[in-house]
Give the backbone structure.
Amino acid sequence: MEKIINLSFLSIFGIVGISFAQGGQPAGGGGLISAIIWMVLLVAIFYFLLLRPQQKQKKQHQEFIESLKKGDKVITSGGIIGEIKSIEDDVVTLKVSEGTLIKVLKQSITSYYQGQKEEAKESSK
């Protein structure tokens, strides 16, 4: 198996070496310009597929964190469901059951608890 890998590796470089030896410079002489265009294209694709959505998601999460208020039912990144009892600078106190309060970082709160809406619908019936 190792010999096959080594032989294929050498044959690829051998073919590349032969093609460079025969060709010299590319036809048209636009190699540098086309390389720059490809680099710009790759950076643009990277930006629009990875960086921009991540920045948008971070901004939405920050707005969500700022809109938290006492009494909201939330879910933390660890999966803990609780009701906000108090909000300090970067710390939120959650009531997870009767007589149990825990403190978590604001940034660890990921979303509102959806069961809150379902419970409100059931109580209004």
